[in-house]
Amino acid sequence: MIYIQYLLLPLVYFVTIFLMIKLGYGGLAEIVKYEKRRITVNPLSKIIFEVGLFLFLSRGFYAFLNNFLVLLIFPFLLLLGILLILRDKIKCLTYYITAYLLITSWVEINMYYGMGNIIYTWPYEISKIFGYSRVVTYYSIIHGILFSLYSPTLYITLLGFIFIATTNTSELIRAFSELKIPLAVTLIFSVFVKVIPNALKNMETSYKMEILRGLDYGKPLPLRLIYQLYGLIAVILPVFVYIVKGSRNLAIALETRGYMSRKSRTSLAKIGFHYLDYLLLFISVIFFYISFS
Question: What is the pTM of this model?
């Protein structure tokens, strides 16, 4: 156990990089690709539920710190529910969840000093470079695992994937119009649902072009992963600039079609609220109550 950290340090980071490359922007685009569902849920119910869950994970779950069983069961039930909803995209979701939990728990384990038996001690140079705590204990490991399982960022992104994959712009506009929400706010959410999948597809195309041009050609495996990770990061800014430029064309198209010509919009189809919406709203109220009580 003395030299375990020297094996785990490169292993954890290279496994995380490998999972990120395997997922790629194409995997993310596959996760958020819209697929029509038999059961339609009001987009507003999804948004309120996401906000309630985020607040609960940010501050409300501290009420259960003394109940170790609840701390372990809740995140697994939540992850199971998410995987069931997006069960046709479980491979890409597994890459994302595993990479996130692995790197988050690893960083927290090595940056948090807890009481208990010491498992290993970092050399001064490594702890200085990475900002790690010199000592890692059993309590540090438990804390790191729980911290990653209850990370609000993980679940807000997963629920964001569900929101985009199960909501189209027509449903969003109808739901917001029924509640008389201003068109400017409706436009923001509608563009978000439309732009994210397209942006991910453009990023995947740009990344493949980098690989075809020989980004990692002839490099050994460890360096190849680093180059591929660099390629994933390098395409973000050009695609972002492309999206910003394309927003002008979108604004012109909306203006041409008279999107803001009337304060209210009508639709033949109605979304309304159903039993599943009321269930989500009820759970959201519980999350809000626990978070602020």
Answer: 0.84
